[in-house]
Amino acid sequence: MSETITRLTVEGLRDSFQSVGYRVETLTDPVANTPYLRSATAGLGFEIRPGNQLVGDEQGFVDATLVTTLQVQGELPLDLVNRWNATRRFGRLQLSHPFLVFCLDVSVAGGVAPNFVRAQIEIWDRLVQELIAYLREELPKLAARNGAAAAAPQPGAPAQQPAHERTAEAEAVPTIQ
Of 59, 71, 138, 158, whose Cβ has the fewest other Cβ atoms within 10 Å? Predict the structure, then answer.
C-alpha cells in the first residue's frame, strides 16, 4: 500500500504533471519571490501556484491552485460565466475585466491517496478542454444575438441604419485570447 500524501512541493507537483505527459517549467514570481510552475494543455497555458505553506516546512504546502488567464476584448456577459459555473463542479470561472480567469484548487489537507493528485490533474485537463469547447460554442451565439439585435429595427427609431453602422455593432462581440 502506498503512503498517504499530506504535503505538496513544487518539485513533487512538477514530477506529477510530467508523469502524465505535461511539459513543465519552474519559474520564480518576481514580486513574491516564490517558485511556481507553468505548463499548457490543449494549447492553453496555465500556472500551478503553491498555496498555504506548512508551519516549519519552507518547501511544503497543503494546497495549490491551477490557473489560466484569458484576455477578453469587448464586453463578456456575466451570464456566460455564470452558466459555466452552474453546470460544472471543481473549477471556477471568474470575470475580472479584461481577464477571464479559470482555476481549480487542489488540497491534500488531512491526507490523500497518491493517485488523488493525478486524478486532479486529469480533472483539470478535462475542464480546460470543456472550457475551450464551451467558449467556441457560446461566443458565436453571442455574436449572432448581437448581430440580430443590431439588424432589428428599434421602436421609435429613425429609418434603417446604414449597413456600415450595423456591421460595426455586430462586430462589437467579445473575443478571448
Answer: 158
* Cα–Cα distances in angstroms (integers) from residue 46 to residues 108, 158, 169, in the given order: 20, 49, 33
Question: Which residues touch 72 (CB under 8 Å, ≥6 apart)?
Answer: 95, 97, 98, 99, 100, 174, 175, 176
pTM for the whole structure: 0.80
Average pLDDT of the segment spanning 69-93: 92
pLDDT tens-place string over residues 116-144: 999 999 999 999 999 999 999 998 888 77
Partners of 36 in beta bridges: 27
| Secondary structure string (H, E, C) spanning the chain | CCCCECCECHHHHHHHHHHCCCCCEEEECCCCCCEEEEEEECCEEEEEEECCEECCEEEEECEEEEEEEEEEECCCCHHHHHHHHHHCCCCEEEEECCEEEEEEEEECCCCECHHHHHHHHHHHHHHHHHHHHHHHHHHHHHHHHHHHHHHCCCCCCCCCCCHHHHHHHHCCCCEEC
